[in-house]
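Hi team,

As requested, here is the filled-out complex form for the BIS(adenosine)-5'-pentaphosphate run. I kept the field names the same as last time so the parser does not choke. Let me know if anything looks off before we queue the next batch.

— J.
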Amino acid sequence: MDEARGNARARHAVIFLGPPGAGKGTQAKEVAHRQAVAHLSTGDMFREHVSQGTELGLRAKPIMARGELVPDEIVLGMIEERLMRPDCASGFVLDGFPRTLPQAEQMDRKLVTLGYGKPVVIHFVVDRSSLLRRLTGRRMCAVCGRIYHIYDRPSRMPGLCDDDGGALMQRQDDTEAVIKDRLAVYDRQTEPLVEYYRTHGKLWELDAGAEVESVTKAVMKILDGNGNR
Ligand code: AP5
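And here is what came back:
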């Protein structure tokens, strides 16, 4: 029985879709861990490139600082390379990708070549005022990337990660002005994917305004049913 469940899960391609601050990263880390699949965050990948000063990072840095999207061809090249690594063989959770129609269409083609069915797409729905509060209060561990919130999910020791003692940093794009631009970019370029996935995926609408643990429970319920209703 467990093996059967494991095999069913092995074919999951899961996409977390939602605006900045909706909780995609928080949930993707937890859910990918519970399902023993890879967590692929394009935002984390870009931040890693930026911190290492790679050529890709140098190109992405000013774009991210403005809250705009990195060009599709760069994102697609990076994600396709990542999907070929062994840890993706038993499924993956995509967090922050796809974000444009060309990215979604290319991903659909890639999923066919990798032998996946339609992706399970979970649309995180949260009201705008909560998004602003979440993003301005977010802090991330500079070492492991664990996500905190100064009021709602604080670390035990102020400014230090509970897991490894790493310094907690504020993301450059988490200022009110850039958040406003990121939300506008989301509305214009990414929100249309909700409609796209109504026909090209198994789309679930999720109330992601609830507390973290309830959201995790709701996501796990969807995935335990293989994304089927
Ligand atoms: P990326 O890093 O993907 O940022 P994002 O999509 O804007 O999403 P966020 O990471 O801001 O939010 P989240 O939904 O993950 O929320 P989180 O869990 O952290 O992208 C950054 C940039 O990279 C882009 O602007 C772009 O330039 C570039 N990029 C990335 N991917 C790209 C792509 N595919 N194409 C082109 N460019 C791309 O939670 C936020 C806060 O809320 C935390 O403090 C958390 O503790 C708190 N929180 C979470 N859940 C809850 C809850 N249920 N209740 C209360 N608080 C909660």
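Two things worth flagging: Residues 17 and 106 are 16 Å apart (CA to CA). Confidence is low (pLDDT under 50) at residues 1-10.

Thanks,
J.
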